[in-house]
Specification:
With 232 residues, this protein is of the alpha/beta class. The chain has a single domain, classed as Vaccinia Virus protein VP39 (Rossmann fold). It is built from 6 helices and 12 strands. The strands form 2 sheets. It has a 7-stranded mixed beta sheet, with helices on both faces. Strands 1, 2, 8, 9 and 10 form a 5-stranded antiparallel beta sheet that branches. Strand 3, helix 3 and strand 4 form a beta-alpha-beta unit. The longest helix has 10 residues.
């Protein structure tokens, strides 16, 4: 599998920045993902991310760490942080930037328990499909210490669909509207297609309740996005 993200992160870190990642999806045209944004400081982060980092406690797992922004911030605050990413390049960049405990690992390979699990930048997306949400939440639940928490953000993308005069919206009813298929391209190479999930709050809350978890809305963002705190 082509490591688009990792290749781009390494280029930026090594001062070979000449272009951005291009993303395309089943609900949007080609769009740029600016590489400098993937190296943002705490002050440059959206308020939802800042809030999540401020709520972190105990031993932390940063899932999908990317260039290590969240892990680095928490390390500086004295937290014990483990960071994981499936991208080999992302793990290398995080290591070079000073993340102390970072491994190339799939979330479902993790067995250690944590007080805080971070799934930021629409971290619920890695679930892929709504029909996988129960398995996804049950695994996260198994990684929580007593009184542990999962902090994740997502977006209700209903706004991206056409509406009729009555305020209803046009979507394919065969699938949940937050299921999206993506590709990423960089310097002439394109990734294989991958599934990504955006969840509205009610659907997420109902899924949590079904799986013995409590889901509280912590903060709303500026564009249909929101941060939740999930606990046993």
């Amino acid at each position: 599998m082509t490591d688009i993200l990792g290749t781009a992160l390494l280029d930026y870190y090594e001062d070979n920045y000449t272009e951005d990642i291009i993303t395309e999806s089943t609900i949007s045209e080609a769009d740029e993902m600016p590489l400098p944004y993937l190296f943002r400081s705490f002050d440059e982060m959206p308020k939802l991310e800042q809030k999540a980092l401020q709520l972190a406690k105990g031993k932390v797992l940063d899932v999908g760490c990317g260039a290590g922004n969240h892990a680095l911030y928490l390390q500086e605050k004295g937290f014990d942080v483990d960071a994981i990413d499936i991208s080999k390049g992302a793990v290398k960049v995080s290591t070079l930037r000073g993340v102390q405990n970072v491994t190339q690992q799939n979330l479902f390979e993790v067995t250690q328990k944590y007080d805080t699990i971070l799934l930021l930048m629409n971290g619920i997306g890695i679930c892929g499909k709504l029909n996988k949400i129960n398995h996804f939440l049950q695994h996260l639940k198994s990684l929580l210490n007593p009184n542990g928490q999962i902090l994740l953000d997502s977006s209700d993308i209903k706004y991206m669909f056409d509406t009729d005069d009555d305020g209803g919206f046009w979507v394919n009813t065969d699938d949940y509207y937050g299921e999206v298929e993506f590709t990423m391209s960089y310097k002439g190479k394109t990734s294989t297609k991958f599934d990504w999930l955006y969840l509205d709050f009610n659907t997420l809350q109902n899924a949590c309740t079904k799986n013995g978890l409590q889901c509280k809305l912590t903060q709303k963002g500026e564009h249909y996005d929101f941060l939740v705190r999930i606990s046993r």
